[in-house]
Amino acid sequence: MATVVNMPRLSDTMEEGVVAKWLKNVGDNIEEGDILAEIETDKATMEFESFHEGVLLHIGVQEGETSPVDTLLAIIGEKDEDITALLSGDTAPAKTEEKEESNSNSSEKTETTSTSVTIPDGVQVITMPRLSDTMTDGTVATWLKKKGDAVEEGDILAEIETDKATMEFESFYEGTLLYIGTQEGETAPVDSLLAIIGPEGTDVEAIVANGGATSTADVKEEKTSETTSTKEEPKTEASNTSANSTSTNSNGGRIFASPLAKKIAADKGINLADVNGSGENGRIIKKDVENYTPAAKPAVANNTAETSGATAMNFVAVGEEKSEEVKNSQMRKAIAKSLGNSKFSAPDFSLNIEVDMDNAMASRKTINAIPDTKVSFNDMVVKACAMALQKHPQVNTSWSEANTIYHSHIHVGVAVAVADGLLVPVIKHTNQLSLTQIGAGVRDLAGKARNKKIAPAEMQGSTFTVSNLGMFGIENFNSIINQPNSAILSVGAIVEKPVVKNGQIVVGNTMKLTLTCDHRTVDGAVGAAFLQTLKTFIENPVTMLA
User: Could you give the CA distance from residue 41 to residue 9 in angstroms, rounded to a whole number?
Assistant: First the structure.
């Protein structure tokens, strides 16, 4: 599905942007993190990276042209995808834009009722920037400047986590950092007070007390000169000099590195010429510097530590209590928010059933004997769920306060564990796919998810979800519903055990399934009937091959 990319607001006062240069052409493949274009804001020319994967289908603003924030900049989607509707303006982003405009109007109303505060000369109020086209709030991952530090134009103030990535936030002003309104790890809405910069020693208590709000004229002035003094801070100058000194390699060629990567390298005394970049066109980014290990230095450091008797620092005394706080990633917060809302808003119940897997095991063995064919038990469960949903449309629904939404399409989400949490890639139109197609689709999307290459569109639109922990030996568990789905299926391990068949105790293989339902849309009898149909399909795999 094509994704509309709007002109981003790359600074807190930006109202329109000029495309200085496109770095991608129509028809080019786009990877998440690729730099699409260089955009001139009212303060600087900045790189704008893609948060989506696909093919660049359309460019809405040509080089040298000016466009307001939130207007169509580009469209990314699948090759040869029809985007006529998007170009004619029949798009979801238009609704989003209206909503944002409504929010903006609401915000303006709030500002007009705020007490007017006179801004001292040279003082600038910095608000939480909207660093992506869908960002509504941001989390300060790290402050790279402290209160009282001198700030120069172009310095990186902080790393901010958006709903899509962690990005560097650059200062467009000069002065002293007088106030920090959002601490590390805290989340704040777009346009809320982030920091204040101005001449050293300026009293900004009145501005802070007013939440950074000022009269319209004051806000305009303060946002156009947010950092206008203090170039003499020795520490900042030393940092910038160090970063710039690594901008060329031993052959005199330019080294491409992000500002944050340069700063970290300068702080650690790392020569960027020795670091391999993993970004686009070999660009050195933050993780490259953080993961860089000099060849000989670690051994020297260890020997020094041992000689000085400092090796005790590497051990924790027996019985010592020790705790460590690790900041929650934006993904972890999103998972917590989504599942928390689901658990505490939906009245759920669970139904359990045990399935005979002997026929399924025999069928899978036969299918996988075919060259270049691989089908897992999970693929069989996903296929069976899609077919059962066709027979029980009440389960393939979503709840809203006014209506129950019946989906004619069947998109099954498959929960995948990743390093930072849990993602749910979606197999679109699952009921129309064969077992082998489902298997290939699941493997492809699961691989993308684990490698952080999956596109947002590939995780949206599910109507039902399957979560499988059988590979970990878990026999039975309950899952939290993946809203706005009405149900989720928990799949346990296949267990060999004594079973009764035809009045005789024999060795059999069984698997337990748990269906968790939203009682607002699915009643107990409906869920039970769905499980009975699902059981029939799984125990008779030949019915899924038709």
Answer: 8
